[in-house]
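User: Hi! Is it possible to get a structure for several chains at once, not just one? Here's what I have:
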Amino acid sequence: MKKLLLSLMFVGLISAQARAEKIVVEGSTTVLPIAQKCAEVYMQNHSDADISVRGGGSGVGIASLLDGSCDIADSSRPIKDTELDKAVTNGKDIKAHIVAMDGIAVIVNTGNGISALTKQQLKDIYTGKIKNWKELGGEDRKIVVISRDTSSGTFEAFGELALDKAKVRPDALMAASNQQIVATIGRTLDAIGYVGLGYLTPEVKVLSINGVAASVDSVLSGKYLIGRPLFMYTNGAPQGLVKDFLDFVKGSEGQKIVIEEGFVVLK
Amino acid sequence: MKRKEKIYEFGLMSLSFSALFFLGGIVIVLFKEAAPLFKHVKISQFLLGQSWYPTYDPPEFGILPLIMASVWVSLLALCVCVPLGLGSALYLNEVAGEKEKSFLKPMVEILAGIPSIVYGFFGMVILAPWLQNQFHLSVGLCLLTAGIILGVMATPTVCSIAEDALSYVPKAFREASYAVGANRWQTLIRVVIPAAGSGISTAIILGLSRALGETMTVLMVAGGAAVMPSSIFDPVRPMTAAIAAEMGEAPVGSLHHHSLFAIALALFIATFVFNIVAELIARRFRAKIGLSL
Amino acid sequence: MKKLEQTIGFGLLRLCMAVVIFFLCAILFFIFTRGVKAISWQFLTQGPINSMTAGGVAPAIFGTLYLVLGALIFSVPLGLACAIYLCEYSPKGWIVNVLRISINNLAGVPSVVFGLFGLVVFVKYMKFGVSILSGSLTLGILALPIIISVAQEALMAVPQSLREASLAVGATKWYTIRRIVLPTALPGILTGVILSVGRIAGETAPILFTAAAFYIKGYPKSIMSQVMALPYHIYALMTEGTHPKEQTIIAYGCSLILVMLVLGVSTIAIIMRQKQRSSLHV
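Assistant: Yes, the chains can be modeled jointly so their relative placement is included. Here is the combined structure:
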C-alpha cells in the first residue's frame, strides 16, 4: 500500500518538470565567480530565467556537456582531443566561447629580496632543481614551494605555460585554493606560489617573469607569458537562454563583472 | 488467509534484501568502473607505486602515498580516540553517578551527531592556524591536524560501543572480584576490561573504520600533498580526499576517472575487511558471554 | 597503595571524559560565537547576493530540507520493512546473517563511495542528472542502515506480551503487526527517524557529485533541479570562494544552522524518549 502511494508520488513529482527556461552552467572553479555573478545579475534583470551554476572542475563541466546534462561548460583550459573525439561519438558539436582572460601571477612574501625570475629559474624551482634562495642571489634559506593540487585548472595552465609540463617536486605544499596560497605566502618568508590575477593583494609581492610582471595590461597585450583564455563551451551554436546569457557575459555588463572579479577582459 | 500471510512475509523479505541489493550494486559499480585501469596499470604498480601524477603525460598511478596518508591519519586518530573513547566509556560505566551519566551521555551523542563538514571547517579555521602558530609550521593543514580532528570524530563511536560492551559484562564477574578483596579499580582493570575485550576491540576497529572512510574532514584539513609523509607536520592526501578532490577534473571515461574508482574500490575492500573482522570478534564475544552465564 | 592506584586510575578516566567534553564545548563555543554574527532574518530567508558575500542561505536551507525529505521517503519504507521482517518474522539463521552482514557493511561504506555510486547509477546511467532525485536516492541508501537499526530498536522495545495477547485472541501475524506492534513502536520509530535527520542533513560527500550546486536563484523548481545545500555550501565557500573574509562568516553561519539542527533533533529525541519510557511502564 505504502509502496503504491510512493510510486504514484514519484511519478507525479517527475512529471512536474519546470516549464520555465532553465539552463545549467557547470565546470571550472576558476570561471565560477564570473559565472555565478553573471547569473545573479542576469536573473535580477530577467525574472523568468532559471540558471543554476556549479563548480566541480573543468573536466566535469566538459563531461556533462558531452553527455547532455549541462548547457554551458565553464573551462579554464582548452578542450582536450580525447574529449573532442568523445563529442563526435556522442553527436555533439562543441563550440568554444572565450569569455575572459586570466593571468597567473607568481608571488612571494613581501620580505623576500628577489623580484624577478627567468622562466627557466621558475621551472627549476618548481621541479626542485633549485632548492635554496641563495642560488638566485638571495639569502641562504630553503625555498618552500607551493602549488595547487592536480585537479586544479590553474595548476594545469601553470604546468603547461610555465613549466612546460614538467613534474612539480613531490614535496611541494598543495594548496586547496588561490586564497590559501595568498594566505600562506603572506605568513611564510621563504615561500613561492602562483595565483590568478584576481587574488593579488598588497600582502604579497609579484615577481616579474622574463622581465614582465603579471598585470591586466601585460596579459592583454600578450607580453606576459603565463596568460590563458577562459572558456564557456556549448553544444552547437547557442540558442535561446544559452545565447542570451553568453551574449550577456561577453557584453559590456558581463565584462564589467569580469573586471570586478579580478580577471582580464577580452578586447 | 494463510496464503496472504505468506505473501506479506515474502514481500517484506524481498524488501529487506534491498540492503544486500545496494551493497552488491556498490560492489559491482566499483569493480566495473575500476577495471579498465588495470588493463594499463598492474595492480602491484597501482598499490605500491610512489608517484601519483594522474594528470601528467604519461600519467602515473601509484597510490602508495595516498594509502600511507590514510593509514597514518587513521593511526594518529586512533591515538586520540582509543584513550579518549575507552577512558570515557570506563568513566561512564564505572565512576559516573546516575545524574552525571544523564547529562554526559547525551553530550557524547551530540559530539557524534556533529556533521563531518563542521568538524572539517573547525579544523581548518581554528585548529590548523593554532597548530601553525604553536609549532611554527608553514601551513597548519597537515597529518597531525587531520589525525586530531578525526580522532575526536571517532571518539563517540569508540565510547558508545565500548560502553555497551562494558555494560554486558555480567554483574557476577564484578561481584566475584569484590568478594576476593579487589577494589573497584583493580576489578575494572583485571576483570571487566578483559571480559569486555572483544567488545572493546570491536569498538576500536569500528572507530578505525570510521576514520579511514571519512572524506570531508580530511579534504579540508589534511593538506593535499600526494607524497609519502616523512613527519606528522607534512601535508598529506588520504585516499578519500583524493577521490573527492579529483573527481571534478577527471573526464568521465578517462584513465584518471577509472583510477579514482580503483582507489574507491581499495577503500571499500579495506573497510569491508575491517567490518567483517569486527563482526567475527563480536560474535565470539557474544558466545563467550552467553556461555559463561 | 591500592587506594592510590584507584584514585589515580579514576582520575585519568575523569580526565579522558573531561577532554571529550572540552572538545565538544570548544567546537560549540566557536561555532556559536562566530556563527551567530551571521544569523539574521535575512540570512535565513534570502538567497545569496553580491557574489556570495552577502545575503542569505535560504536556498541552501531548503535544499537540505528537500534532500533529507527525499532520502527519508526512500529509506523509511524500505528500512521499516526490513526491520519488521527481521524482528517479527524471525527468519532462518542464514537469512538473518546475510541481512545483518549486508546492513552492517552498508553502514560502514565510506560516504564518498556512496557519492561515486550515485554518480554512476543515478546521475549518468539512469540519466537523472545532478538533481534532488539523484541526491535523495544516494542519501537514502546511506540512511537505510540507520533507519533499519532505529526501527529495530523500537520494535524490540514493544513487549512480547502484547504480541502474544493478540495472537492468543486469534489475530493473524500481519494483523498483529499492523494494528498492535507498529502503533506501539511508532513513537520509537519516529524518534529514531528524527535523530537520523541530523545525520543525513550533514552529509556532504554523497551530494558532491549528485545534487549540489554552487548557486541557484530562489528555490528548486522540480526534483530534477540541482540544489544548494548547507554542508556543501560550507565546503564550496571555503574552497571555491573568492572573498574569504565575508564568506568565512557565512560558512560559520551555515555551520551554526547545522549544529542547531543536530541539537534540535537530539533534544526532541530525548524528550520523546522520556515520554515513551513513562508510557510503556504504565
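Chain B has a mean pLDDT of 86. The CA atoms of residues 172 and 270 of chain B lie 38 Å apart.

User: Great, thank you!
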